[in-house]
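Today's session is about reading a structure prediction critically. Students often jump straight to the picture, but the first step is always the sequence itself: look for stretches that repeat, for charged clusters, for runs of hydrophobic residues. Only then move on to the predicted structure, which in these notes is written as discrete structure tokens rather than atom positions. Here is the chain we will use throughout the hour.
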Amino acid sequence: MTIVPILLAVVACSPGKFNLDEKIGMCGDVSKSSFMKDCGQNYVETNVSGFLIPESSEEEFAANRAIAQTRALPVYSANGFFPGDLKLVGPDADIERAAKYSETAIRRASELGIK
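Below is the predicted structure for this chain, in token form.
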């Protein structure tokens, strides 16, 4: 038994306490969105570094774009914006890399409809 059916039952049996029009999403692999939909989710939350792959070529990202365009659920959000090896402060800060990474990540997120 998973927690998802329990949570859905609690929401369904608590009129007035929950807005059932609210979206409920799940963090995970976009290619598993059919499973997430079967579990009652409304959207997928993905990972910036792993799915938007801002430091990879457009050709490499094209495969993930195709997955996102044929998914069972929309991708509304993404987490884990900067990778751990990208230093943002201190003497080893790489502002140029951070700026390029950010621009690519935000553009790709926008292309996929990630808010």
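Discussion point for the tutorial: Residues 95-112 form the longest helix (18 residues).
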